[in-house]
UniProtKB/TrEMBL annotation:
CDD domains registered for this protein in UniProt: AKR_AKR11C1 (cd19086)
Pfam families with a match to the protein in the record: Aldo_ket_red
Keyword field contains Cytoplasm: no
Keyword vocabulary terms for this entry: Oxidoreductase
Stored Gene3D superfamilies: NADP-dependent oxidoreductase domain (3.20.20.100)
Keyword Oxidoreductase in annotation: yes
EC number: 1.-.-.-
Matches recorded under InterPro entries: AKR, NAD(P)_OxRdtase_dom_sf, NADP_OxRdtase_dom
Source species: Rhodopirellula baltica (strain DSM 10527 / NCIMB 13988 / SH1)
Name of the protein described by the UniProt record: Probable oxidoreductase
């Protein structure tokens, strides 16, 4: 699998990354042995980048990944890079414009949280530590990022990142231009294309690394769910697709499938492959993390990454599927 540098002078990452959310058990029941087998299969097939967070099962995802890393031979372990996150302390998610960074990302809190990340993963230095959310209200006094710079100087962190809040992804643009983040993790998919307007060009301009998440719109862009599908209560998506959201989403997914047929691409590209390839298509993007919870999912995603890039004409057609659905969690 192709390896690229994660931003200017960044460490190498595979174009397809392993998303570790499901390993924490919030996408339905998850067996740790299945998680370990999925991780092993991913590494054997060239995936060298893993993304996780403490919120994924109250540290369970990190711990499983840490357990996996310990059993790897040193020659393989040194090629694997893991990104994790520090969430803001208790309060609104994402942080509101009225939140003070002192209350959500105070220095003592960040330091204690980073130590917990190190323990869970069983490492002495984090490859990439990302603040899990942000508000543009802090851009003119971004002290939490300065705390991370100190932690990097102390050898606790290698690279500093920030995950964009879904409703205000452009809040990272000023931070990139100010040189305060090495990497940004953004939502970019066939429905959510706003980062293409300014965020991705600025990332290229500044040499900031870009990780794409939610490339499959939480599974909807795989095309495997019917309009009346309902997720179990212990699955995060039971809330994400509440009400009539799945019904409205499947109509738009079907329209993408129609375009695949019109272009004669449906024999080679599944809907999932199309979505992943679309997310990889901007030159500013280094890696696309996709959630994987078993060996079968890993195999499908690895095969997708190996496909030829989508034709430019078809990528332009996919741009027409941008969906300005507003604040999705409010059901608009």
């Amino acid at each position: 699998m192709k390896q690229v540098s994660l931003g200017h002078d960044g460490f190498p990452v595979s174009r397809l990354g392993f998303g570790g959310w499901a390993l924490g058990g919030q996408w339905g029941a998850q067996d740790d042995e299945a998680s370990l087998a999925a991780l092993q299969h991913a590494i054997e097939h060239g995936i060298t980048f893993i993304d996780t967070a403490p919120g994924y099962g109250d540290g369970r995802s990190e711990q499983v990944i840490g357990q996996f890393l310990k059993q790897l031979p040193a020659s393989i372990r040194e090629k694997i890079h893991v990104a994790t996150k520090t969430p803001p302390s208790e309060g609104p998610w994402p942080p509101s414009p009225y939140c003070r960074w002192q209350d959500r990302y105070g220095a003592a809190y960040i330091r204690a949280n980073v130590e917990e990340r190190l323990r869970n993963l069983g490492v002495e230095c984090l490859d990439l530590l990302q603040l899990h959310s942000w508000t543009s209200a802090w851009n003119d006094d971004p002290q939490p990022l300065l705390v991370l710079q100190k932690l990097r100087q102390e050898g606790k962190i290698n690279r500093i990142g920030l995950c964009t809040p879904e409703q205000d992804q452009n809040c990272v643009i000023q931070l990139m231009r100010d040189g305060l983040v090495d990497v940004v993790q953004v939502v970019f998919n066939i429905f959510e294309q706003e980062p293409a307007a300014q965020l991705l060009p600025v990332a290229e301009e500044t040499g900031t690394g870009v990780i794409v998440r939610v490339s499959l719109d939480e599974g909807a862009l795989t095309g495997k769910y019917s309009a009346d599908h309902q997720f179990p209560e212990d699955d995060f998506r039971s809330g994400y697709f509440a009400g009539d959201r799945m019904q409205r989403t499947t109509k738009r997914v079907d329209a993408i499938g129609d375009d695949l047929k019109e272009f004669g691409l449906d024999e080679h590209y599944s809907l999932a492959a199309t979505a992943i390839q679309f997310a990889m298509s901007p030159t500013a993007v280094q890696t696309v993390i996709v959630g994987m919870r078993n060996v079968e999912q890993v195999a499908l995603n690895v095969a997708t990454e190996a496909l030829p890039a989508l034709p430019e004409e078809f990528l332009r057609r996919l741009q027409l599927h941008q969906w300005r659905r507003g604040v999705w969690y409010s059901g608009k």
